[in-house]
Amino acid sequence: MLKNMRLISYLIISIGCSFISCKYSVSARHADKIDSIPGRTWWKEAVIYQIYPRSFKDNDGDGVGDLKGIISKLDYIKSLGVDAVWLNPIYQSPNYDNGYDVSDYYKIQPQYGTMQDFDSLLQGLHERGIKLVMDIVVNHSSSQHDWFKQSRSSRTNPYRNYYHWWNAEKGKPTPRYSFFDVNNDAWKYDTLTNAYYLHYFAQQQPDLNWENSALREDIYKMLRFWLDKGVDGLRMDAFQFIAKDTTFPPFPAGYEKNIAKYYGNGPHLHDYIQEMSKEVLSKYPVMTVAEGADTSPEDAMKFVDPARHEFSMAYHFEGIDYGKYKPNYDLIGFKKIYSYWDSCFENKGWLAIFLANHDQPRMVSHWGNDAPQFRNVSSKMLTTFVMTMRGTPYYYYGDELGMDNIKFDKIEDYRDISTINAYQHEKNTGGDLEKFIEDKKRSARDNGRTPFQWDGNDNAGFTTGTPWIKINSDYKTVNEAAEEKDSNSVLNYFRKIVKLRKNNPVLVYGKYTLLDKDNPNVYAYTRELNGRKMLIVLNFKNKPATVNTGINLAKATLLLDNYSTPPEGNSLQPYEAVIYEL
Ligand code: GLC
Known about the structure:
By secondary structure, this protein is α/β, with parallel strands linked by helices. It has helices at residues 2-14, 19-29, 42-45, 67-72, 74-80, 115-127, 146-153, 213-228, 259-263, 269-279, 297-304, 331-344, 363-367, 375-388, 417-428, 433-443, 480-485, 490-503, 505-509, and strands spanning 48-51, 84-87, 91-92, 104-108, 131-136, 165-167, 187-190, 195-198, 233-236, 287-290, 313-314, 352-353, 392-396, 511-515, 522-529, 532-539, 545-546, 557-561, 571-572, 577-581.
């Protein structure tokens, strides 16, 4: 009976008015007292859309995405309802690590266009009320940067100390692990001056020496250049690594379990960030987000505690690294991580919330289920999680379509230096190459870097040329044009939930409380602010599940559901996501 009554009221609500307009009336009834929220800022309330420029839209037919391509899609970006775009690096680069190896911080990568194109892009975004976040890669530069060319030319060159050198007559330096090196060796011997240089990432990405104030001044100058152009936000790449213990001591056994702690977090890390803040950041209305601040919540807090005047917010990796890409990760542990981090930042500081980015496989393949019958519904469920947690959502291009892992069968299809070099390492050390390829179908970064699927035409409407990386063969059905026409698509669900979040500050600022914490299948929580309360219930499994929140839903209003029929009592369908107003 109750079930039928709920079904009838659901239908009445749905008929004759769009779901979203009904939701507006709900928020009008319970208008949040937003003026009384302390510490309100645009970047806490924003939804940030990440664009991987190589793969968004190619305008000139060379198979590589470009700035004019992004410009041609500004109205699409606007239609998503997002507030800001984060662009992965677009600076001049030899592209060993797809732009994370910058050879000139003041120039645009020619494949992407010109500085004029950049200015037009920024203007086009601003005209639409959308902000721009640039990626700042200053733990390392490219080995083709002029600073490095000078630095390696002689031991007495003024740029020598822009990088970390170890003269070979002192013997071999203490080993350091490199993330992308074929031999995992972070010290590269250079015959030119008979010395080793340090590279935490690839050989072509030498680490910059932040101990040197001249280098720091050059970085600040570069930041001013972009901020003077009107850039609104900065994403600080790999930032815990900038400051190292430059005596390069040996590490204790087991250090690799917390590599960030030993590799970064040098004695002067926060002095440098505070200096940068004083010299540059504090002079602009800029949002900053630190990648790599996550050795612990306490360490992360140091980056974002407002009293310290460092960055606006930080990512933590404990969530994204959880389960090591295993298909059946334990949901209880997942809930524990997000709940713990939330509790640590409940009263001060601010975090980003994300389930994917360019360093990860696709969200739906990683955390949901990309089998045809579950792809849409589990994409929507995961999107619901990201959009209803406290923290600023960072949402990766293509996830709004439910794009999934491409799962390459052979190494030749890969473009990412980290996968290619790891494969070579495996080969050199007699590893199991078949297993390697199988594992990479779940974990490789290239899974998340394939071109955006605009339509069902050749090359998914991404390029008229040959794409730099293969396009996922499911583009005939999974594409923007098709999803525009379907009111029930992942894309249109994304638009609805972005509006829901933006119109309901309770979803931004509200207190988070985990419910039914030992439920192995369902993630349930409330968000509460100034007398408003929402309940979010998410079935993370591919089978029906029940939830026990202890909340009587008789008077609850259903705000959003990723199925077309409402839940029956406490039962949820596979990957069902429901939001109630209590
Ligand atoms: C960051 C970037 C990643 C890059 C690495 C080296 O982790 O997100 O893509 O490879 O830094 O710059």
